């Protein structure tokens, strides 16, 4: 299983990830990418059929802003998860 979120501090709004993986990434009003899966919390598992797109987006991101993990990202995790 994979979890993903965008490091919005380093994203440069290049538009690559949303083109490669439009089911995972979208952009806020400033053009900064975020994960559509759970508003960039990285807590919802990436669906299996999107894994290849995610990997490609990760490779193409010029600033390595797409973070991947095998566990949910804990920053905004709710209690009991
Ligand atoms: Fe931001 Fe990387 Fe996506 Fe480009 S590919 S919009 S730098 S997260």
What this model shows, in words?
The protein is of the alpha+beta class and 81 residues long. The chain is 19% helix and 17% strand. It has helices at residues 16-20, 51-60; strands spanning 3-6, 25-27, 33-35, 66-69. The strands form two sheets. The protein has a two-stranded antiparallel ribbon with strand order 1-4. Strand 2 (25-27) and strand 3 (33-35) form a beta hairpin. The longest helix is centred in the C-terminal third of the chain and has 10 residues, at 51-60. It is globular and about 30 Å long. Bound molecules: iron/sulfur cluster. Residues 6, 11-17, 33, 61-63, 65-66 line the site of iron/sulfur cluster.
Number of strands: 4
Low-confidence residue ranges = none
What share of the residues does DSSP label as strand, in percent? 15-25%
Bound molecules: iron/sulfur cluster
The end-to-end span amounts to 16 Å
What shape does the CA trace take?
Answer: globular
Query: What string, H for helix and E for strand, traces the elements in order?
Result: EHEEHE
Radius of gyration: 12 Å
Quick description:
With 81 residues, the chain is an alpha+beta fold. The strands form two sheets. A two-stranded antiparallel ribbon has the order 1-4. Strands 2-3 form a two-stranded antiparallel sheet. The protein binds iron/sulfur cluster.
Using brief descriptors, characterize the structure shown.
ET_Ferredoxin; binds iron/sulfur cluster; iron-sulfur; globular; alpha+beta; 4Fe-4S; 2 helices; 4Fe4S_Fe-S-bd; two-stranded antiparallel sheet
